[in-house]
Structure formats: structure tokens, C-alpha cells
Amino acid sequence: MNGGGASWARAGGAPPGLRDAVVPPLHLWRGLLRAAGQELLPQRYRAFVLLARVRLWALLWAVGVPLWIPFDLLLIGGPLGRRLALGRLAVAALLAAGAWLCRCAPRVHAVRKALAVLFGAPLLYFMVVVPAAVHASGLPAAGAALREGYRLMPLLIAASIGLLPVTLLEGLAVAGGCLLAAALGHYASGLPATGAEFGRLWVLLVAGLIGTLAGVSQTALLLQHFRDAATDPLTGLLNRRAGVNLLALQWEQAQRGRRALSVAMIDLDRFKRVNDTYGHEAGDRVLTAFAVRLRAALRAGDALLRWGGEEFVAILPGAGAEEAARRLEQVLREGAVTGPDGAALTFSAGVAERSREDAPGPEALVALADRRMYAAKAAGRAMVVGSDPGHPQAATR
Length: 397
Description:
Blueprint: H1 2-10, H2 16-22, H3 26-33, H4 40-64, H5 69-76, H6 78-101, H7 108-134, H8 141-150, H9 153-159, H10 168-189, H11 195-230, H12 240-257, E1 261-268, H13 271-278, H14 280-297, E2 303-308, E3 311-317, H15 321-334, E4 337-338, E5 344-345, E6 347-353, H16 362-378, E7 384-385, E8 395-396
Parallel strand pairs: 6-7
Antiparallel strand pairs: 1-3, 1-6, 2-3, 4-5, 7-8
Helix pairs in contact: 2-11, 3-11, 4-6, 4-7, 5-6, 5-8, 6-7, 7-10, 9-10, 9-11, 10-11, 13-14
């Protein structure tokens, strides 16, 4: 590892992690475009981070917005000043309610609602305030300056997009909302469409695009860092900690949709002999090849995790125990992986399915699959056990 780090340093380049953060790899681009393009686990992670930041900003704005009420009353005063003060209280209440609602499960629709409240409340206030403020007369110089400051609200909101890890479509939606609010506010004011106003809209558009790009770059960094933390460096599969979280999410979805969810615990047979005879580097190559073989046998929506050592866990949402066992049996028949000496290596596996077993949670389901995997080992290895001993379909070779 030290040699690799020195090589890129001597070459004047950048380490892969930093390079991917600046120019995201192709597999991340769909996730940067829209949240639906992200895999379930990083999607939930980004939603969690974004909701936490929205909650913080909504609380700060809910406290900060009313602090300007004395300026409205003193510098503008009259019915307009009181209307502005009441509007600020309404916006603060909406933001406080939005911060409370952000204490929810981190899902895509929750992110959309949070963004709508955080940016929609002040934009709605702007569209109500500007037409009345523009035609106010007899204001002192400080009041007139404060009134002009209100016209900058969409610009400030558009620039603040960059504070959040948004996708491209989310950022463009907020920027488009700012542009629309500015245009509608100007139209409702009854002012002519001058070159200065078009220039203001152009600056707003640029600010929105810059804010969007800044937010998307945050998302790219977040997804890349998550991938680095969640991935087993040898096989490229999800590691155990990430796998536990993914299984919990899949369990939740399966329960909500009353769908099947199978888990398989898979362990290479006599793998210790490979390490003892040919060394750990040869063992690493076997594990990598085995991971590739297993991954190819699973469906696109399935997940394969490196649980530890030579143990792997497969998560198969929507698949019954029979289908999961059948896929693993096919790998056994066709050959799982070849050892350094050219001989075929086998594996033992245990399968458990959510709706068929009496498992109270995902941890119990994994424990059951693990127990059946050890039953396969005890019965002679190279087999898949899909039910407890004594069942007529307990094991297949």
C-alpha cells in the first residue's frame, strides 16, 4: 500500500479516491442525475445527510427570520411593515414545522418534501411581499434599501442550493422555482420588463446553476466516500457493516410489501488449505474469483456481501428459498472456483426465507442461514441446506 501511494505521488497524479471525487466514475453519474438512479443503501445515506442539513438550516432560518421584524417595523413601518412582520412569523412557523417533519425515515419522497418546505416557504413569502413593497412610497432611505434587499431573496435562495447534497434534477427544480418566483413577483408588481430586470434574472440563473453544481459535487463526494467506506477492498463487494444496514432496509421493504426475502450464508470448503499451502496472495485470488462467480449467478437486484474471511452472504429480495437454493446449486454443478492447483473448490451454503421462517428480524434470519450452512458442512460439504434437518428438502448436492 505504501508503494502504491508513493507511485502516484512521484508521478504527480492524484490518488484514485480524490480523482473519483473530482471526476466521478461512470457508475455514479446516474445517481448524480436523480435519486432514483442510486442504489438503495447510498440513496438512504444521502437522504439521511440531506434531511439532517435541511433540519439544521430550517431551524436556523426559523430563528433568524423573525429577528428582522424590528427592522421592518422601524425602517418601513405602517401597514406594509406590519404585513412583512406577519409574513416573517408565518415563514418561521412553516420552517419550524418543516424541521419537525424532517425527523422522519430517510426516503426520496421525504427529501422532496423537505426541499419544498425549506425553499418554498421563503419564495412564497417573496412573491407575496414584493408587489406590495415595490409600490410603497414615502420610505426613508434605509427603508428603501431594505425593500430592495427583499428583491434579492431568490438570488440568495438559489445560491444556497450548494449547501446541500442535491442531485442535478433536484437542484434544477429549486433553481427553476427561484427563477419562476422572481419572474412572477416582477409581473405581479406591474413593472415594465427592462434590460435591468432581464440582467437580474440572468444573474439569478447563473447563481442557481452554480449552486446546483456545488450541490451535485457534494453528492458525488458523499456517494464516493460512502462507497469507499462500505466496500470490501479485496472483492469489491459490500462489507459486513454495510450489508447489515442493507439487509435491514430490505427486510423493512419486504415486510411492508409482504414479499419474499431470502438470505444465503455461503462458505468456501477447505479454504484454509489454500492459504496454508499456497499463501495468502493465492487465497486472495481465489476469494476474488469466487466473488465474481457468485455475483454472476445472482440477479441484478440481488446483493452479495463479504461477511468475513471466506464467508459470503447473498440477499435475494423477492426470491423464495427454493429459487435461492436453485441458483446456488447451479453454481455447485457448474463449478464454483478453481484453486491454485487447478482443482475445483466447492462451498457449503444455508438458505433462510423471511415469510417461511419464524424469524423476528434480519439478524435472526442470518443466524438461521448460518446454522444451516454449518449443517451443510457437517453433512459432508458441497451442498445447500434450505431447511432444518429432517425436512424432506433439507439438502441438495
